[in-house]
């Protein structure tokens, strides 16, 4: 085995590949055209309606420059709407449409249902410990990210 196979960064990248593959497979089986980032955006908008794109990017730890493409695709699918912000006429507020709410209601249980499959090979106790350690290290390293996770702003 080469040294690379024991490096945290490589293993995290591989686990991410597995996660994206499982997500894509399960969405395809459900007849749904949705990516993991689009799912994250829908979840964030469900919990935080009428936020702008920059806030959305921070809530899902996604690059502010490329979030526009995600928003464009979700709007094109009729899952979100953009309206002029009440607080800042130059900004656009994002909100789930009825179709977005319905799709999120459909896929949320599917996504919850395959989380253990992403961590296949681990016992329930090991999965819980792994999740605790991932939360701990991602919180500690958040400021090192090019797209740090940001808490929602008080409304």
TrEMBL record:
Keyword Transcription regulation: yes
Residue span(s) of domain HTH marR-type: 8-139
UniProt KW Oxidoreductase keyword: no
Coiled-coil stretches noted in the UniProt entry, renumbered to this chain: none
Keywords assigned: DNA-binding, Transcription, Transcription regulation
Top-level division of the source organism's lineage: Bacteria
Pfam families in the record: MarR
Gene3D superfamilies referenced in this protein's UniProt entry, alphabetically: Winged helix-like DNA-binding domain superfamily/Winged helix DNA-binding domain (1.10.10.10)
InterPro entries in alphabetical order: HTH_MarR-typ, MarR/SlyA-like, Tscrpt_reg_MarR-type_CS, WH-like_DNA-bd_sf, WH_DNA-bd_sf
PROSITE patterns, sorted: HTH_MARR_1, HTH_MARR_2
Name of this chain's protein: MarR family winged helix-turn-helix transcriptional regulator
Lineage of origin: Bacteria, Pseudomonadati, Pseudomonadota, Alphaproteobacteria, Rhodobacterales
């Amino acid at each position: 085995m080469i040294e690379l196979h024991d490096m945290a960064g490589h293993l995290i990248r591989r686990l991410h590949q597995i996660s994206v593959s499982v997500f894509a497979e399960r969405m395809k089986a459900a007849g749904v055209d949705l990516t993991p980032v689009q799912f994250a955006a829908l979840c964030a908008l469900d919990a935080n309606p009428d936020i702008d794109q920059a806030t959305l990017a921070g809530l899902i730890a996604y690059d502010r420059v490329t979030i526009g493409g995600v928003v464009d695709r979700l709007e094109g699918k009729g899952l979100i709407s953009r309206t002029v912000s009440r607080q800042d006429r130059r900004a656009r507020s994002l909100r789930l449409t009825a179709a977005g709410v319905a799709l999120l209601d459909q896929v949320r249980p599917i996504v919850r249902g395959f989380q253990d499959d992403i961590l296949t090979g681990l016992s329930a106790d090991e999965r819980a410990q792994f999740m605790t350690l991932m939360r701990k290290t991602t919180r500690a390293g958040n400021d090192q990210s090019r797209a740090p996770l940001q808490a929602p702003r008080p409304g």
